[in-house]
Design a protein that fits this description.
98 residues; mainly beta; Jelly Rolls; four-stranded antiparallel β-sheet; 0% helix
């Protein structure tokens, strides 16, 4: 059985990992009344190659939680989590990787 590492639950933009890895999955849940965009970049900053984009909104517009299975996509530079909304951060996100 193969296991993976986790960023833990993050509520603000952050470098998840510096260096090469496999992105396994991203889990996101809305935590505010504003729609929130969650992006993961193959980088240590909010630029470069965008690997995934999730838009979460408060229910009933969006599911309570969303999981993206990334099937082990390779990130060569690292993983940067960007959480943004017009009203500050509005999502709790975990990033799983190897």
């Amino acid at each position: 059985m193969t296991s993976c590492r986790s960023s833990g639950v993050l509520t603000a933009s952050s470098v998840v990992l510096s260096g090469r890895c496999k992105l396994i999955s991203v889990h996101a849940q809305a935590t505010s009344s504003a729609p929130t965009t969650v992006k993961v970049f193959d980088n240590t900053a909010a630029s470069g190659k965008e690997l995934v984009r999730i838009i979460v909104a408060p229910a009933p517009e969006s599911p309570a939680a969303i999981e993206f299975d990334m099937h082990g996509v390779i990130a060569t530079n690292g993983l940067y989590l960007d959480i943004s909304t017009g009203a500050g951060t509005g999502a709790a996100v975990s990033v799983e990787f190897n």
